[in-house]
Design goal:
By secondary structure, this protein is an all-alpha fold. 86% of the residues lie in helices and 0% in strands.
Length: 507
């Protein structure tokens, strides 16, 4: 009897110890994940801000050295590549990140499949260059498309980035992006200055992808091993839904470029391309940061409903507080921004930018929601949301193009983005099992956006030159944002100030 009591006591003591250790492990895991997410957001956020600023500076320099037709031709050629990228993006990256069971051998198998697929599609684009050029009725496109076809193959060698994202190692990923972007743009500017014309833009892309691929393997510290093709069927199933989304998304995002290039000519295409990149790239960067950082983090807590809901809502809320006011500023300053930085020959692009920035705002919000949806493995929702966007916009674009030209196309494009956002928000609410979750998370940011937009936009009516107008708009917008942010997020505002002070003291 005494032995039984002793054994029972020991078992009870061991059980308490194991439960205590389990709790300690869970707390440690939680802290580690939180640290990884914040570190990732810091690296990706700062990296993307740096890249965005530098890219704008480099594009301004190139825009002053090259013609509208040069930018238009490269934009047309890149549409062909974007289409091929859409049909090669089977969603393997998202599948690898989302899965917690995939093996190293299966990852290698996926790499070899992607390499084979990209090789075939590079050949298809190269030999189909004449057909693509005839669609746009621009014979000059043939050599450009043939050269840019190799960008598809070069993208294969960015594969280690998926693994860096999965293990939430964003330092190497960010350094590879910045290093390749800087090198390629500096060389492109030198080429443009010495008279290479449109080819400086082509080689900028080739060099950027080449250098990025090399640095990806260096920082990723990964090489493919012996592949294991068995057991990868579930990744194909997940990926095929993403493939459908990517293909339809290509038309949702690029059909306006297709119609512009085909019916409105290369000069309008060049103007549109400048405005499109300024308006849509911030939304794409939001997608990049959140997909790269939050998706792997959210995937790890996808089965804890309360924690998943709390973290998803918090990410949407905090991101929107910065993103929505930024896009409101872009809309308000667009008519002064373009001529001030890019030159008078690009002035018309300012009007395009004002409307396209609204599309960028809606796209950015949708991308924030998609991070949570993908983390839950609901890739079908993304696929259907893009179909909704295409169905809503394409008929309207075709109807409005003839009487209103590029402005008709942009209005139709905007309506499609609105429908896509509404559908995505609806399913985001379902996944979080909370009514109006999306609206509640962004309502403070929406209020800030309206308050910032009105005074900044009204400065456009003042009889002053574009340079002075732009400076006043930037100052007013920044002051209003700081005041509003301090009011809405007082605790966070002073917390950030304290951290800045501590950094200054340490330095």
């Amino acid at each position: 009897m005494l032995l039984v009591l002793i054994l029972r006591y020991l078992c009870s003591s061991l059980s308490r110890k194991l439960n205590f250790q389990k709790k300690i492990y869970q707390i440690t895991l939680q802290k580690t994940l939180k640290k990884q997410v914040f570190s990732g957001l810091a690296w990706r956020g700062s990296s993307d801000v740096i890249q965005q600023v530098l890219q704008i500076i480099f594009t301004i320099i190139l825009a002053r050295l090259l013609t509208k037709a040069d930018f238009g031709l490269v934009a047309m050629a890149l549409i062909v590549n974007r289409f091929v990228k859409a049909i090669t993006s089977i969603g393997f990256g998202s599948a690898i990140i989302q899965s917690q069971e995939i093996t190293k051998a299966q990852i290698s198998a996926i790499f070899y499949i992607q390499f084979a697929l990209n090789t075939v599609l590079t050949a298809v684009v190269f030999f189909g260059a004449g057909l693509a050029a005839s669609f746009f009725e621009e014979p000059e496109l043939v050599p450009l498309i043939k050269t840019l076809a190799f960008v598809i193959l070069l993208q294969t060698f960015q594969f280690p980035n998926i693994l860096m994202r999965k293990r939430m190692d964003f330092k190497g990923f960010s350094l590879a992006e910045i290093g390749s972007m800087l090198s390629a743009n500096i060389i492109a500017i030198m080429m443009a200055y010495t008279g290479f014309g449109v080819w400086s833009l082509v080689w900028r892309l080739i060099l950027q992808r080449s250098i990025f691929g090399l640095l990806s393997f260096y920082y990723g510290k990964w090489l493919p091993s012996k592949p294991q093709f068995s057991g990868i069927k579930p990744f194909f199933k997940f990926g095929m839904n993403m493939l459908g989304a990517h293909m339809v998304y290509f038309f949702a995002e690029n059909m306006i470029g297709l119609l512009t290039g085909r019916y409105l000519g290369k000069e309008i295409m060049g103007l549109f391309n400048i405005a499109f990149n300024l308006a849509i790239v911030p939304a794409t960067k939001i997608q990049s940061v959140l997909t790269n950082v939050l998706t792997p983090g959210m995937s790890k807590i996808q089965y804890d409903k309360e924690k998943f809901r709390l973290n998803s809502t918090k990410a949407l809320h905090l991101t929107s507080l910065l993103f929505l006011p930024f896009m409101a500023m872009l809309i308000a300053i667009s008519q002064n921004l373009i001529p001030a930085f890019y030159g008078e020959k690009w002035q018309e692009a300012g009007k395009y930018l004002m409307l396209l920035a609204v599309v960028g705002l809606l796209r950015g919000l949708a991308h924030i929601l998609r991070s949570a949806i993908i983390a839950k493995g609901e890739s079908k929702v993304i696929f259907v949301s893009v179909i909704v966007e295409v169905i809503a916009s394409l008929p309207l674009m075709c109807f409005l193009m003839e009487p209103y030209g590029i402005y008709g196309l942009i209005i139709g494009y905007l309506v499609g983005a609105l429908f896509g956002w509404v559908y995505t928000a609806y399913h985001y609410n379902i996944i979080l099992e909370q009514k109006h979750a999306a609206y509640k998370a962004i309502k403070e940011a929406m209020m800030m956006t309206i308050i910032i937009f009105v005074p900044v936009y009204c400065i456009n009516i003042l009889p002053i030159n574009v340079y002075l107008g732009l400076i006043i708009q930037m100052v007013v917008g920044t002051i209003v944002f700081i005041v509003l942010f301090r009011t809405v997020k007082k605790e966070l505002f002073f917390s950030l100030l304290e951290k800045i002070k501590l950094k200054k003291i340490k330095s």
